[in-house]
Amino acid sequence: MTLDQLLPRRQAEIVAIDWTVLAPDEAKRLRALGIDEGAQVAIAHRGVFGGRDPIALSIGRMTLALRRAHAMAMTVREL
């Protein structure tokens, strides 16, 4: 399943990211924040506006906002 399909507060591991759908500067920023294969993440909550954007993603002790389009590029395995 992709990260945007993960239910809130469920832990998952990122198993693959399709970096080709992301702009190079966006991919670099996400990697700098620790978003890469093997990272354990959880959806803290979702936005309320059309398309449920943005997604609040918990990774370690950090919470960051992630666009749904970026989350769709990430394949996760629920833990």
UniProtKB/TrEMBL annotation:
GO terms for molecular function: transition metal ion binding. Pfam families: FeoA. The keyword Mitochondrion does not apply. Keywords: Iron. InterPro entries: Fe-transptr_FeoA-like, FeoA, FeoA_core_dom, Transcriptional_repressor_C. Residues 1-78 form the Ferrous iron transporter FeoA-like domain. This is Ferrous iron transport protein A. The keyword NAD does not apply.
